[in-house]
From TrEMBL:
Organism: Microbacterium caowuchunii
Gene3D superfamilies for this protein: Adenine nucleotide alpha hydrolases-like domains, HUPs, Translation factors
Annotated active site: 101 (nucleophile), 198 (cysteine persulfide intermediate)
Residues the record lists as binding ATP: 6-13, 32, 125
Organism superkingdom: Bacteria
Record Pfam families: tRNA_Me_trans, tRNA_Me_trans_C, tRNA_Me_trans_M
Annotated site residues (Interaction with tRNA) in this chain: 126, 338
Taxonomic path: Bacteria, Bacillati, Actinomycetota, Actinomycetes, Micrococcales
Protein name: tRNA-specific 2-thiouridylase MnmA
Keywords from the UniProt entry: ATP-binding, Cytoplasm, Disulfide bond, Nucleotide-binding, RNA-binding, Transferase, tRNA processing, tRNA-binding
Signal peptide (residue range): none
Amino acid sequence: MRILAAMSGGVDSAVAAARAVEAGHEVVGVHLALSRAGGTLRTGSRGCCTIEDAMDARRAADRLGIPFYVWDFSERFRDDVIEDFVSEYRAGRTPNPCMRCNEKIKFAALLERALELGFDAVCTGHYATLVETPDGPELHRASDQAKDQSYVLGVLTAEQLAHTYFPLGSTPSKALVRAEAAERGLTVAQKPDSHDICFIPDGDTRGWLAERVGVAEGDIVDRSGSVVGQHEGAHGYTVGQRRGLSLGVPAPDGKPRFVLEVRPVSNTVVVGPREALATAEISGHRHSWAGRAPQESAFACDVQIRAHADPVPAWATWQDGALTVRPEVPFEGVAPGQTAVLYVGTRVLGQFTIDRTVSAVPV
C-alpha cells in the first residue's frame, strides 16, 4: 500500500512510520503545521506542534529513508478546532479539542488530501486496533489499556477507518515502543509525551479564553438560586470544578461545593454538593458510528465520557436522530460539550457530543 505517515515529531508516530516501512509499504512522511501562535515556536512549549517537533519528525524520516513534507493546515485548524473550542466555551459547554482535531483535521482534511494524491491510507501513532470483518473494519481498544486511545478516535466513520493504519495497537506497552525507537536509532526515543492543549502552550486555559471571550462579572448561585459568590467570567468554569470558586457564603453543612452548571446567557455559575454531580442520563444529536450502525434502536453498551475515565455499563436508545444513554451507575461531573463514546466489549461502536444531562439528585 501507499501510506502517508502523519509524523508529529514524537516517538509513537516515528515508530509507527518505521513499522509501516518494515511491513513493505511505500511510505511518505508528513508533519502538519497546525498553529502559527507564537508560543508554539519556542523550545519548551507544552503541546505537539512546535518547530522543534517538525525538526524531530524530519530527522526520524531521514533515518527511515522516506520522503518528508510539512503541510500547512493552520487555517483549517484555526477554523475547525480553535474557533470551535472558543464558541463551545462561549455557549457554556466543555469541548474536547483533540476529538475535533481527529475528526476535522487528521482523519478528514489530511485523509482527503492523501486520497486525492493516490495514497491508500493514513498511518498514525495512535494506540488502537483495527479488526477486519465481513461488514468492514471495526475500531477496537489497544492491547495496552494504559495507553489506549480509542476514545479520541471514536469520531472516525466507517469510510475513514477503511483508510487508516494503526501499527501500534497491539504493542503491550509504551516502554517497548521507546526501546524499539532506540534500537532503530531514532533520536525521539526518550522524548517526553506531549500534554495539555497544543494551541495553549503555557497551559493557562482560563487566561487564554479570557482574552478571546472577554471578562464579564456575574453571580455564583446555589441550586435554590441564592447568590453565594461572584465570578469574572463563566467561561472560566467547568462542571465538576471545586478549586478557585472563592465563594463568599459557606455551605450550610460546611462541605465543599462544586460547579454543577454554567449558564452563559445569564452569565451565571451554579454550585452545589458533590452528590449533585451524579448524572442519570445524557443525550445528544451530533453522533457518528465507527463502522456498522446498531441494528436495534435500543441496546446495551459501555459508555466512556473522558479519555481516561472507566467505561460504565449503560442502556442506549437511538431515536429521532438523538442518542440517549442511561448508565447503570450514575456518571459524575458530566458537562455538555463532552464526548460520550460507546463500546461493545473492546469495540468502539460510535460517539455523540453531549447536549443535555439529567441529574440523579433532584433539587
